[in-house]
């Protein structure tokens, strides 16, 4: 497994997926190697997964690609010494220019293409062109593409005429949460609205803050999150909040028990993510039974359906949804129950891991190759 920060999962959706999938593949009898960057785990193994720590260039532009370059070189060298992998799972289409290194050693490759990264405002014209090109290279050089949302599948079909394997994420189903943690943080169940997001424009934290501030809500808005390389946007969000005493910024919360308690205790969880596929934060909120008000894009509608959430597209509609939830908290709680039920039925890590196992077996047996990704060009 190549292309992420690795495990134990401390950062994002890819890392959580590797944690959950990798441990289950080990339990099924497979040998799993995870390439890691960042904080080093004290052991060479984690939940049975072999860890390989390699450095990276510390910059927004080069960090992921530099680490992946070292990782694919290491995996290729292991192949030379006859200890190499049967299959490589590469996460993030941005790593596609490095796939020929694996292909040269006849290592079958599946690329998890992630979301539409080129739509993120943090990338300049050059960065966007790179990501668009990388998508094309992923189609050309992968033996299989992995999409975690039907909307991503549709995008690759329409743009490239390419088939992909649909495998969503799993959701943690939280029957109980640490209410003492919530009390220690100064909050009561049902008495606040919540945002959890990296501070990036496409996650619409600014819209959540602006919409809430326009509302007549009496329960506070709790904002969890931050982002590297986003000082200007963070300043914009704080300026929109102004001196409104109802809006509280907590910064990053790395205590998972507290974060789960915040999800479970929120009257509403305001989810503004718009360019990814199946978003792990949304699944965690649903698994905690949060009543979700989500930005109105196809990815979020796909995950929530029509019964398990409400949607907003601008500040006015968000303000309306917040006020409606405060006027009828019972209905909001019912939507949270429906969301948990939907997550428990549709987003199951055991099923996800089984799908990855089947994918790897198909790659190893050469039932999936570049020829099976049908392309227009």
Describe the structure.
The structure is a single chain. The protein has helices at residues 13-27, 63-80, 99-104, 125-141, 150-160, 179-184, 205-214, 231-241, 256-265, 280-287, 298-304, 315-327, 329-346, 349-364; strands at residues 33-36, 45-46, 49-53, 88-91, 109-112, 144-147, 165-166, 193-196, 221-224, 247-251, 268-271, 292-295, 309-312. The chain has 377 residues and is α/β, with parallel strands linked by helices. The protein has two domains: 13-170 and 349-372, 3-Layer(aba) Sandwich (Rossmann fold); 179-346, Glycogen Phosphorylase B (Rossmann fold, 3-Layer(aba) Sandwich). A six-stranded parallel sheet has the order 10-9-8-11-12-13, sandwiched between helices. Helix 7 (205-214) crosses helix 12 (315-327) and helix 12 crosses helix 13. The longest helix is centred in the N-terminal third of the chain and has 18 residues, at 63-80.
């Amino acid at each position: 497994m190549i292309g992420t920060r690795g495990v134990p999962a401390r950062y994002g959706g890819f890392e959580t997926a590797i944690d959950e999938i990798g441990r289950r593949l080990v339990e099924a009898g497979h040998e799993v190697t995870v390439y890691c960057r960042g904080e080093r785990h004290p052991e060479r193994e984690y939940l049975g997964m072999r860890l390989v720590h390699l450095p990276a260039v510390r910059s927004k532009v080069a960090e992921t690609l530099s680490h992946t370059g070292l990782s694919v070189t290491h995996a290729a060298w292991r192949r030379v010494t006859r200890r190499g992998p049967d299959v490589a799972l590469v996460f993030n289409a941005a790593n596609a220019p490095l796939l020929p290194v694996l292909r040269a050693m006849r290592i079958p490759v599946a690329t998890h293409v992630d979301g539409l990264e080129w739509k993120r405002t943090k990338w300049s014209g050059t960065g966007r062109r790179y990501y668009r090109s990388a998508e094309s290279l992923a189609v050309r050089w992968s033996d299989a593409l992995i999409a975690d949302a039907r909307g991503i599948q549709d995008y690759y079909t329409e743009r490239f005429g390419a088939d992909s394997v649909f495998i969503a994420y799993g959701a943690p189903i939280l029957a109980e949460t640490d209410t003492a943690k919530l009390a220690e943080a100064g909050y009561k169940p049902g008495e606040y609205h919540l945002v959890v997001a990296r501070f990036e424009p496409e996650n619409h934290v600014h819209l959540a803050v602006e919409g809430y501030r326009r509302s007549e809500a009496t329960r506070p808005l709790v904002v969890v999150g931050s982002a590297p390389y986003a000082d200007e946007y963070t300043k914009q969000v704080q300026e929109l909040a102004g001196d409104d005493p109802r809006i509280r910024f907590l910064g990053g919360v790395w205590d998972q028990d507290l974060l789960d308690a915040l999800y479970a205790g929120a009257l509403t969880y305001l989810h503004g993510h718009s360019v990814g596929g199946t978003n792990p934060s949304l699944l965690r909120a649903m698994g905690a039974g949060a009543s979700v008000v989500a930005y109105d894009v196809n990815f979020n509608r796909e995950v929530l359906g029509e019964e398990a959430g409400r949607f907003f597209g601008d500040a006015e509609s968000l303000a309306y949804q917040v006020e409606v939830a405060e006027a009828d908290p019972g209905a909001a709680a019912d939507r949270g129950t429906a969301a948990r039920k939907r997550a428990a039925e549709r987003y199951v890590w055991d099923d996800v891991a089984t799908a990855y196992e089947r994918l790897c077996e198909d790659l190893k047996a050469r039932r999936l190759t570049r020829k099976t990704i049908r392309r227009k060009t």
